[in-house]
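User
Here is a favour to ask of a fellow structure person. I am asking you to supply a protein in sequence and structure-token form. Please set it down just below, with no commentary around it:

Assistant
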Amino acid sequence: MKKVLLALVGILLFALLAGAILYVALFMEDEPAMPVDASSESSASASQAEPQLEVYAHAETPADVLEALDYEISANRDTVGWLIVPGTEINNSVLQSHDNTA
């Protein structure tokens, strides 16, 4: 009887260990380290990171705009156009949700 009980405890411990390893492997992702700019460390805004936009590519020609727009539409069906504002860094897709009719 003791051998059966020890075998069941061993199987239970093995299952718990395997489950913990599987959980860590599947659900815990390593976050990439943010590069640190030495010049921005001394400023007060160093604690606030600049947002990184997921942009396919900066479109400079009409052909680039069409290629980038095709990619954005395939990635997000809410894409309705492309916006370029000369003299600024604004060069990205425009989205409109189903509940934004205006």
Observations:
- Confidence is low (pLDDT under 50) at residues 31-46.
- Residues 68 and 74 are 10 Å apart (CA to CA).
- The chain has two helices and two strands.
- The first strand starts at residue 79 and ends at 84.
